[in-house]
Amino acid sequence: MDNIIFSDRMIEIAKCVPKGKRVADIGTDHGYIPIFLASNGISKEIIAMDVREMPLNKARENIKKEGLSEYIETRLSDGFKALSRNEADVCIISGMGCDLIINIINNGIDVVRGLEKMILSPQTLLYKFRKYLIENKFKIVNEKMLFEDGKFYTIFEVVNGEEENIYSDADLKYGKILIDRKDKVLKDYLCKEYNKLNKINDELEGIDGEEVKERKKELLCELKTINEILGGF
């Protein structure tokens, strides 16, 4: 396995999988997460799926090279289409935008409702994503945040069911679980975000116009929210 470099994000995603569960990796790309799961004994029943033939062929090559074909099956699939209900206990969807992940879940909702757990890592629009989950009878049981290659990533562990916690606007934007846990990476993100927004606010000083006035109002409101969250750390 010398040629495969597992990113910290891949490893953290894999750690979210309960040992011995059947896993479906949606959008597997080159099959690295299934390979990590199988080679580390986390799961021996994995279905690696991708909508594109080329990366799926590469995944097949990698799986065969690592001698893991017995444990990992590959399927050409648009989202959950090639997966039947109750074929997997856990699904992984990562490395995609919020809207694409939401579409994949909605289009495969019958399969999704039969899962024990989803591990999701959208790259964009986290406020919208959290709101979608809560409004569509999904419960966020854990969130992880990490910084890798100059970017912040969030990993969600989600189960079917009504969300019991009440989420404020700030909770939706920055993650209630992360805030309550006083997550160190979230703190780093908030500090960076505060400095960025504060700089924008300073640059707008002395500029007239209704749009600028409204933008400054939004910035000050967000700066206040971030400052309040950081005050609790």
Key structural traits:
single chain, 233 residues, alpha/beta, Rossmann fold, seven-stranded mixed beta sheet, 10 helices, 7 strands, 46% helix, 21% strand, elongated
Q: Could you explain the architecture of this structure?
A:
The protein has 233 residues and is of the alpha/beta class. The chain folds into two domains: 8-164, Vaccinia Virus protein VP39 (Rossmann fold, 3-Layer(aba) Sandwich); 186-231. The protein is built from ten helices and seven strands. It has helices at residues 8-15, 32-39, 53-65, 98-107, 109-112, 126-135, 169-174, 176-181, 184-203, 210-231, and strands at residues 23-26, 46-50, 72-76, 90-96, 117-122, 138-148, 151-160. It has a seven-stranded mixed beta sheet, with helices on both faces. Strand 6 and strand 7 form a beta hairpin. The chain is elongated, with a radius of gyration of 20 Å. The model has no long low-confidence stretch (mean pLDDT 95).
In terms of topology, how is this protein built?
Elements: H1 8-15, E1 23-26, H2 32-39, E2 46-50, H3 53-65, E3 72-76, E4 90-96, H4 98-107, H5 109-112, E5 117-122, H6 126-135, E6 138-148, E7 151-160, H7 169-174, H8 176-181, H9 184-203, H10 210-231
Parallel strand pairs: 1-2, 1-4, 2-3, 4-5
Antiparallel strand pairs: 5-7, 6-7
Helix pairs in contact: 1-2, 9-10
Continuous helix count: 10
Q: Could you spell the SSE succession in H and E letters?
A: HEHEHEEHHEHEEHHHH
> CATH architecture of the largest domain, please?
3-Layer(aba) Sandwich
> Gap between N and C termini, in Å?
41 Å
Number of domains: 2
Low-pLDDT runs of 5+ residues are none
| Order of strands, widest sheet | 3-2-1-4-5-7-6
